[in-house]
Amino acid sequence: MSETTTGGGRRVSRRTLLIGGSAAGLGAGVAAYAARDELARMWWRLPGIDKPRKAGAVDQPGVEWIAASGANWRWADRPDDYAIDRVVIHVVQGSFDDAVRVFKDPGHRAAAHYVVRRDGHIAQMVRELDVAFHAGNRSYNERSIGIEHEGFVSEPSSFTDAMYRASARLTASICERYDIPRDREHIVGHVEVPGTDHTDPGRHWDWDRYIPLVRAVRVARTAK
Predict the structure, then answer these.
(1) Each residue's pLDDT tens digit, 161-173
(2) Which pLDDT score is estimated for 152?
(3) How far is CA 197 from CA 96, 112, 137, 201, 209, in A?
(4) What is the pLDDT of residues 98-149, one digit of tens each?
(5) 169-195: string of b/e by CB count within 10 Å (b at 16+)?
(6) Residue 69 backbone phi and psi in degrees, to 5
(7) Cα–Cα distance for residue pair 112/98, rounded to 1 Å
(8) CA contacts within 13 A on the Cβ side of 199
(9) Are the C-beta atoms of 224 and 177 separated by less than 8 Å?
């Protein structure tokens, strides 16, 4: 991104100039602050600025890309516009194919970033930089990555060793990318999202097994 040098010698990015110049014309006080905050989140949608995106690219090495319907998520520039500090664990109440089908359906109006199958296979359906409609809470959608799991909350056999281990590797990688602590405050179940009416992942999801698996994964840190 291009930069301009101010009279004091400090280098100012084009993004800063665009945001600052736009906010200055919106008045003082709370309204100006709110407008500046919104512009800070939306700068990359301004004319002449394109967010780099590659069709079919995945954030997690080795996963399959299957695109969710654009009606089930919204474009963003996370973590620059919304800091990511949570991973939300879901159980679909159905099969892997069921999850993929409904997340591709524009009428469903919901999707998670990832879907994990019983055998450990993972599909990514929404880019991590974008906001997936998975938590039933706008703030949590904006701040979290959602991981859906094949299975039923009432069936302990849904949660296989392969699923736990694959999901734990994925969660550990997400935590490493965004400096998220690997603990139960930051890795939560859908049922723990404020205002939700969901019960997943349910009492049979073994947190005492899952969190140690997440902590045990060693991930090479890469730039995000």
Answers:
(1) 999 999 999 999 9
(2) 98
(3) 22, 17, 11, 12, 25
(4) 999 999 999 999 999 999 999 999 999 999 999 999 999 999 999 999 999 9
(5) bbbbbbbbbbebebeeeebbbbbbbee
(6) -60, 140
(7) 13
(8) 7
(9) yes
| Residue 73: strand pairing partners | 132
Count CB atoms within 10 A of the CB of residue 114: 29
List, in order, residues 6 or more apart from 50 with CB less than 8 Å away. Answer: 44
Q: Do 96 and 118 form a contact (C-beta atoms < 8 A)?
A: yes
Distance from C-alpha of 191 to C-alpha of 130, rounded to nearest angstrom: 22
Displacement of CA 73 from its chain's centroid (Å): 10
Integer-rounded Cα Rg, in Å, for the chain is 19
